[in-house]
Specification:
Layout: H1 2-20, H2 29-40, E1 43-53, H3 57-64, E2 77-78, E3 85-89, E4 92-97, E5 116-120, E6 123-130, E7 135-143, E8 148-155, E9 160-167, E10 173-181
Antiparallel strand pairs: 1-2, 1-3, 1-10, 3-4, 4-5, 6-7, 7-8, 8-9, 9-10
């Protein structure tokens, strides 16, 4: 009985220690202020580092054939060296992101334009600060003429971000990367 109570105490200690390690990161007031100013200016560029497509049998077949880039797996594809981006400039957004996954519906297929591409003023644009996560959440819908995109993202004070894109014709994909203030000198976006 004594061994059982010691074992239970150890297990509870481990669980409590593990739970306490998942606290939200704390940022200084200056970091949060700079972060809020950057995001609320709505002038930033997201540079994807990883694409996280839904793992499907087709993607597994591609991986088994050795067609994924070195360092990539079916559920996590390294995007270093690609020119993908997502930009917010005022009330307009623009994206040109590589897509890995399956198209679920027929329709126009252009082999020269197979990524996630859109440009314009989105519908239902929401940018809200989540106090608990200490992060901004961005949500909107946009149409590129042939496909409807539902975009959800999270921007963190450490300049890391996640972007989830659900479309009317493809499986959902997530991107992870960094964001930075939009530099007009780069002319990333011509709106």
């Amino acid at each position: 009985m004594k061994k059982l109570s010691i074992l239970i105490t150890i297990i509870i200690s481990i669980v409590l220690t593990a739970c306490s390690a998942t606290k939200t990161a704390k940022y200084s007031e200056t970091e949060l202020s700079n972060f809020k100013t950057l995001v609320e200016s709505q002038r930033f560029n997201f540079n994807p580092r990883w694409a996280n497509p839904m793992g499907t049998q087709s993607l597994n077949a591609i991986a088994n054939a050795g067609l994924l880039a070195p360092g990539s797996t079916v559920n996590r594809i390294d995007l270093i060296g690609t020119a993908g981006f997502f930009t917010v400039k005022g009330d307009s957004v623009m994206a040109d992101l590589p897509y890995y996954g399956e198209r679920q519906m027929g329709g126009a297929y252009n082999p020269n334009d197979i990524g996630i591409n859109f440009e314009g003023v989105p519908r239902k644009f929401k940018l809200t600060f989540n106090e608990k996560k200490q992060a901004y959440e961005i949500k909107f819908d946009i149409n590129n003429g042939t496909e409807v995109f539902n975009v959800n993202g999270v921007l963190f004070p450490n300049k890391k971000a996640m972007l989830f894109i659900n479309t009317s014709q493809r499986l959902t994909i997530q991107y992870q990367g960094d964001f930075e203030e939009l530099d007009d000198k780069e002319n990333v976006m011509q709106l």
